[in-house]
Design goal:
The complex is a heterotrimer.
Chain A: E1 4-15, E2 18-30, E3 35-39, H1 46-54, E4 61-70, E5 73-74, H2 83-93, E6 98-101, H3 105-108, H4 115-126, H5 131-144, H6 150-153, H7 163-175, E7 181-185, H8 193-210, E8 213-218, H9 221-225, E9 230-235, E10 238-244, H10 245-250, H11 255-262, H12 301-305, E11 310-312, E12 318-320, H13 323-334
Parallel strand pairs in A: 3-8, 3-9, 6-7, 7-8
Antiparallel strand pairs in A: 1-2, 1-4, 4-5, 9-10, 10-12, 11-12
Helix pairs in contact in A: 4-5, 5-7, 7-8
Chain B: H1 4-13, E1 29-39, E2 50-61, E3 66-70, H2 77-84, E4 92-97, E5 100-101, H3 107-116, E6 117-120, H4 134-145, H5 151-164, H6 181-193, E7 199-203, H7 211-228, E8 231-236, H8 239-245, E9 248-253, E10 256-262, H9 263-268, H10 273-281, H11 287-292, E11 333-335, E12 338-340
Parallel strand pairs in B: 3-8, 3-9, 6-7, 7-8
Antiparallel strand pairs in B: 1-2, 1-4, 4-5, 9-10, 10-12, 11-12
Helix pairs in contact in B: 1-7, 4-5, 4-6, 5-6, 6-7
Chain C: H1 2-7, H2 33-43, H3 45-67, H4 99-135, H5 137-151, H6 155-166, H7 170-196, H8 200-207, H9 212-220, H10 225-248, H11 260-268, H12 276-303
Chain lengths: ~325, ~350, ~300
């Protein structure tokens, strides 16, 4: 059984301008101690998906359809008697069995509370232990995530730490209660390359140590290449391709995935960059057919009218594109 | 992003090329021992604290060339870029534009400098005035410099510029917040192009954008350069993209230039240990290579520029550091046109 | 679903022409800042009510003295202290003057004092604070110390001194109110400008060669319009209040002219026998100030970027 199962999830946001269909009918699962990368541009719905899993959607966002199942129990609000019961359950899960690493540590850390207190609070929220013991655990955690002289730094405030160090603290807090699932929302986007490498290594190391599952949300395929076993490509609120790392990087089927691969400069191969033309679709009025149609170099008339179904290439590799149908028809004609 | 022919036509129509191509090989920009310091002393009686953001940097940018400047945040690369357009005054040293010291520019010379040297900023959400329409934003530089006589002509030109950067002319009445990050960055580029500049400082123009959009902006900048012969100073922290767009690369660390050379050479055959570490930290979009590749792990982070360590600035994090490195600052040494400042070579 | 696939005609699988693609499409409706703010303001019923009340009050203040058969100073000693009737809708005062006309005449004075004071504050405060924040350095230091000096003298003292020098008239009252009240606005604008001038769009304006005046007004001040407008709207009731208070204690415009404060002060002497007379001016002050405050809140909410 998968650890996390997301089925036919749709999320809408009510705005002044109308309803934004941020996530539209997506289905995926995350297995035990599996690392999954969700890749997409800003506005593709990748963060919204994870926020709805965590029950952290903004007030104007609602899950309109679908279900989220974690360890065999449904954790969508509609499965609960009332909002209070749902919140109570989610509070138990969040930070305990499922935790999140945010893009900007400063939005998560309280600027006027000492780092040590912020870590021990999380530990004590989920476990009844003494102050001294919690402090000892905090020091251990900080040492584990590579913060030098943790005893001293326990008494410092967030602003006394650099960006990379803050991200390490966020990771320490996220790992405090040995979660089964760690969701990392663009954890390295705001960091420099050298620090990014350090943080990615740390996440990888901690994942192996704790045997947790990791969901890595990013817009950079380079970030998931070394870390993830399974990669989900999202575009315009939909999943366009899913596959193992090798399937996505070497046998990409969807024109968007291929486009993404071509616009990352790979120094090992000297290729010209081919950007994907245009901008992501406006989800106030998403295209009826394939969301990628307006930027796709291979777009056909059918793409504008109907959303393609996902076709399976292997047990793990699926792609939703009309090109597959074209291939099939050609094959029929020849045969 | 087509219509490059139009750009060319307009270069001669609207104001013309600002400079006759100078004879000889005089670089468009020459930076000599520039230092930019900031006094951050708090209160009257505390000891003087000086941030040495840029500390004795020299380089030059040739005509039609792209000079890439890389380094981690806090290394002074953006400060240097801003010093070059006089947002910050240089504490010491000389910045020569077309052979003339920019600090001495007054009146008409200053105005001409403002017209020919432009800047593209990092944050596409902050670099456009939220209360102006896209049309007003693009027309503003033309109004200031009196390019084209009537408002109607300017409007037409603004629409044309929008087309050049790949947007639609009818976006002219919209406000910046209605656009995505990549689209805004293209509006920024259209604004700078309105003046037919000769030199553009690109201050991390892609680091706030999605990867797929980064390539668009880079290619757009490249196309513009090919058509108009503009020189760029391309400031970024992403070595792979810098390598793609630049002819030459300079690597900065803690206010100092530590390595400089031909883009491909710096990339394939780095000399300075810091450059090597930077290169090995780049995530590679190829799982087989990424899993195979060993990284040079850099311990720690950039030290504070308030009290920089004596000697080699990189000493504290350098895997090759010896006692000698603490004694004095290594000078830039020339290895067949590829320069680096390190004792251990 | 496979059946639907079969129905699709082969012609649908032709390549799409670039011109048929809808790239760079923006579905969002384009609205200017103020259109957007107005839409948000309209949702706030209290603020809207305040605006309606204020509009009615202004219209009455303009037209009642024009169409009424009475003037504000015409005494009719036969009908002293009359109760409301068809002839005198709100009754008459102790000298037989029509209270409605006097009240509306007072509204002219009180409201114009409020709006003119707010307007003067706006101009002085924005220019002073804008320059101080934009120029920075020593000039800023000196300008701020000047403000501190002005602020250190009680505003009542200014009013009394100015009255002594320029006499009791509406101009002196205005001057008295304005001498020190623009300081809040100046400080606010200064802080805003200080943060905004570091923003990249301000630097961008500098790099394209915009003059300092242009950067200050076209780029910086226009972007702190939100808080400026809010403080200005809230300045109006404050000035009305101060004027009324001054008039009530006998400082301000001279009789027989009347502002709401003088009306209340006059009615005080007959409060035992004709308490209704003091109700009218007090009610006018209360409702106007209340609706102006509601409007201020509504504007603040509508212009707050967090509410978008």
């Amino acid at each position: 059984m998968a650890l996390l199962d997301v089925k036919n999830l749709s999320v809408d946001f009510e705005t002044d301008q109308g309803t934004v269909h941020a996530v539209r009918d997506i289905t995926f699962s995350v297995g035990e101690s599996e690392a999954v990368g969700i890749v997409g541009e800003s506005g593709s719905g990748k963060s919204v998906t994870m926020y709805s899993v965590m029950g952290l959607l903004a007030a104007n966002g609602t899950i309109t359809d679908g279900s989220v199942t974690f360890k065999g129990t449904e954790i969508t609000e509609k499965a609960f008697l009332n909002h209070r019961a749902y919140e109570a359950c989610m509070e138990k899960i969040r930070g305990n069995e499922m935790s999140m690493i945010f893009q900007d540590p400063m939005t998560f850390l309280n600027p006027v509370v000492k780092i040590g207190k912020q870590i021990t609070e999380v530990i004590k929220n989920h476990e009844k232990i003494s102050d001294a013991e919690a402090k000892k655990r905090a020091v251990e955690l900080m040492a584990q995530v590579g913060i030098p002289s943790p005893e001293k730094r326990l008494n410092q405030y967030p602003h006394e730490f650099s960006g990379g160090m803050r991200q390490r603290i966020i990771i320490a807090i996220a790992l405090a209660n040995h979660p089964k699932l760690i969701i990392a929302d663009e954890p390295t986007t705001a960091l420099d390359v050298t620090i990014q490498a350090q943080v990615l290594d740390l996440i990888k190391e901690m994942k192996e140590k704790l045997q947790s599952s990791v969901i890595m949300i990013t817009h950079d395929l380079g970030v998931v290449a070394s870390l993830c076993d399974k990669i989900i490509i999202m575009y315009g609120g939909k999943i366009v391709e899913t596959g193992t790392d090798r399937e996505i990087f070497y046998e990409a089927k969807h024109p968007y995935t291929r486009g993404l691969l071509q616009c990352v400069h790979n120094p090992e191969k000297k290729e010209k960059l081919t950007p994907i033309a245009g901008s992501p679709p406006d989800l106030l009025k998403p295209p009826v057919g394939c969301p990628f149609v307006d930027r796709c170099p291979e777009a056909m008339k059918v793409c504008k009218l109907y959303m393609p179904e996902a076709a399976a290439y292997s047990e793990t590799h699926q792609c939703a594109c009309w090109l597959e149908e074209v291939k099939r028809r050609k094959g029929e004609n020849h045969g | 992003m087509a219509d490059m022919a139009e750009v060319k036509r307009n270069v001669s129509a609207a104001g013309g090329t600002n400079l006759a191509v100078c004879a000889g090989e005089q670089p468009i920009l020459k930076v000599e021992h520039v230092k930019t310091y900031f006094d951050v002393t708090k209160g009257l009686f505390s000891p003087k604290q000086i941030v040495k953001a840029v500390d004795d940097v020299s380089f030059s940018v040739g005509r039609g060339e792209t000079y890439g400047l890389v380094g981690e945040s806090g290394c002074g690369k953006s400060t240097l870029g801003r010093t070059l357009v006089k947002i910050y005054p240089a504490t010491e040293g000389k910045i020569m534009y077309n052979g003339q010291d920019i600090a001495a520019f007054r009146g008409a010379e200053e105005k001409n400098f403002r017209k020919e040297v432009q800047m593209i900023f990092q944050d596409p959400y902050a670099s456009l005035n939220p209360r102006m329409t896209v049309g007003e934003i693009i027309k503003e530089p033309m109004e200031i410099h009196g390019i084209l006589s009537s408002s109607g002509e300017r409007e037409e030109r603004a629409a044309e510029l929008l087309k050049i950067v790949g947007l639609k002319p009818d976006h002219i009445r919209r406000y910046p917040h209605e656009f995505s990050g990549g689209q805004r960055q293209r509006i920024s580029i259209a604004r700078t192009l309105a003046l037919n500049p000769r030199f553009i400082i690109c201050d991390e123009p892609i680091s706030a954008l999605d990867v797929s959009i980064q390539a668009q902006i880079i290619n757009l900048l490249k196309e513009i350069q090919d058509e108009m012969g503009i020189s760029y100073l391309f400031v970024a922290h992403d070595l792979s993209m810098v390598n793609y767009i630049s002819h030459r690369i300079g690597v900065m660390y803690l206010g100092h230039l530590v390595e400089e050379g031909d883009a491909d050479e710096v990339y394939s055959d780095p000399i300075h240990p810091y450059t090597k570490a930077l290169l090995s930290a780049i995530p590679i979009p190829d799982p087989d290579v990424a899993k195979r590749k060993s990284r040079i792990k850099l311990e720690g982070e950039l030290p504070s520029p308030i009290n920089p360590p004596a000697g080699c600035p990189f000493r504290g994090r350098c895997p090759m550091a010896t006692e000698d490195c603490g004694r004095e600052r290594p000078e830039m040494k020339d290895y067949n046109g590829h320069k680096a400042a390190c004792f251990c070579v | 679903m496979t059946e639907t696939k079969e129905i699709l005609d082969d012609s649908l699988f032709e390549k799409l022409d670039d011109s048929e693609k809808n790239t760079e499409f923006i579905a969002m409706e384009s609205k200017t800042y103020f259109q957007d703010a107005w839409r948000c303001f309209k949702k706030n019923k209290l603020a809207l009510g305040g605006l309606v009340f204020l509009t009615i009050m202004i219209l009455l203040a303009v037209f009642v003295p024009l169409v009424s058969p009475y003037t504000y100073d015409a005494q009719d000693l036969d009908v002293r202290n009359a109760l409301p009737s068809m002839e005198h809708l709100l009754g008459t005062d102790k000298l037989g003057r029509d209270i409605l006309v006097r009240l509306m005449f007072g509204a002219r004075i009180s409201l114009s004092v409020g709006f003119v004071a707010a307007f003067l504050n706006l101009i002085i405060g924005v220019v002073y604070g804008g320059i101080s924040g934009f120029v920075g350095g020593k000039a800023d230091m000196v300008m701020m110390r000047i403000i501190d000096c002005i602020y250190s003298i009680p505003s009542m003292l200014y009013v009394i001194l100015i009255m002594m020098v320029f006499g009791s008239n509406i101009g002196s009252v205005l001057l008295g109110i304005c001498v020190s009240s623009w300081i809040g606005m100046a400080r606010q604008v200064r802080t805003q400008v200080q943060t905004l001038k570091q923003q990249e769009f301000a630097l961008a304006a500098y790099v394209i060669g915009a003059s300092k005046v242009r950067i200050l007004f076209k780029h910086l001040i226009i972007n702190c319009m939100g808080p400026i407008i809010v403080s200005t709207t809230l300045m109006v009731p404050e000035a009305i209040f101060t004027e009324s208070f001054l008039a009530f204690i006998g400082i301000g415009i001279s009789l027989p002219q009347a502002s709401w404060g003088t009306l209340a002060s006059e009615a005080r002497s007959v409060i035992q026998s004709y308490p209704l007379q003091i109700v009218w001016p007090v009610l006018a002050i209360c409702l106007t100030v209340l609706s102006l405050n509601f409007i201020g809140d509504g504007v603040g909410e509508a212009l707050d970027p967090k509410n978008r």
